[in-house]
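Why does residue order matter? Because the sequence determines the fold. Keep that principle in mind as you read this record.
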Amino acid sequence: MFDEFYGLTGRPFQLTPDPAFYFESLTHRKALSYLSYGLAQSEGFVVITGEVGAGKSTLVAYLMATIDAARLTAAQIVTSRLDSEELVHVVAQAFGLQVQGHDKASALGAIEGFLHDEARAGRRCLLIVDESQNLSIGALEELRMLSNFQLGSHPLLQTLLLGQPEFRETLFEHPELEQLRQRVIATHHLEAMEANEVQAYIEHRLKRVGWMGNPSFDQRVFADIYAATGGVPRRINQIVNRLLMLGAVDKRSRLEAAMLQQVLHELSRDGAPARMPTPPAAEPAPLSPEALAAVVAPVNPGFAAALAQADAQIAELQHAIIELANKAEAPTMGGEMAILQDRVSVLEGQLLEQERAIRHTLTMLIEWIETENDARAAA
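Structure:
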């Protein structure tokens, strides 16, 4: 209705996620930086949390629209309260697999076979799990087990977990999820937009459907919308949608603060009270948004050499373990057994030190890139 009255080509404030309307607020830019960094690692879990309506699904839709489908196969599931066996079948279905039988083993076999085929074809696989706060501890553990699938030393599946704030608490505090926590390589909590971003957000969405200044807005409207929504995108969409409708009904070319108060009163009466913003939590410095283009690019040669060294040490450790097992089966072991045990212990220590060095170097790189971006912006 109002789109015709104002000459718009579509409805800019729909509540369903649409990557065409993606707006890069400060918190969304940080989230994209963490996503790009996490996906570049090609393994483990990336975790994005946020309040209802914060824009998690829109962010992921935008991300997937920018990734080369020829190099990355992605599947998305929206979870209800699934147990571990149900989850495995849902994952298989999300990747388009036809599972023979209804048992868990058949589904796992189909998933592993599919992941191997994709890897041989040169494609990585990403599983996106929305509404992760609904998953049981058993189901989360099943996701961790899926991340164990490998081709040689290369992991076959990476997982992106999206959830509401309570999922973050469960993930990082539940005693049974320690092994899953160790595989989380990037995490970000998606905050609400800041007050000075609300006007830009509203005008951005309007321009996507041909807005040329009709209707215009009383400047106070933007501040009042922020106060009523706390900067949460879905709440902003809901309010502005009703405001545009009221403007079209009253045939108004300028939307004023008094009209907004009328809309807020109606929404409150309908059971949708306004909420005030909460102060944002501190976040570590993220990668710049330019890193998004390199999400599926090859790893930097320096890091590749370090990772190759780590792989070589892993292979040596595996060989030592096999040798140790063979010696254990022999009738006599003597001093050789003790020597091999010492060798394994030394290699394990070297591997831990190597991992710490790589992660420290990556952290320094992130901080350096962000500092460079800030310096260019200041200049």
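Residues 273-304 have pLDDT under 50 and may be disordered.
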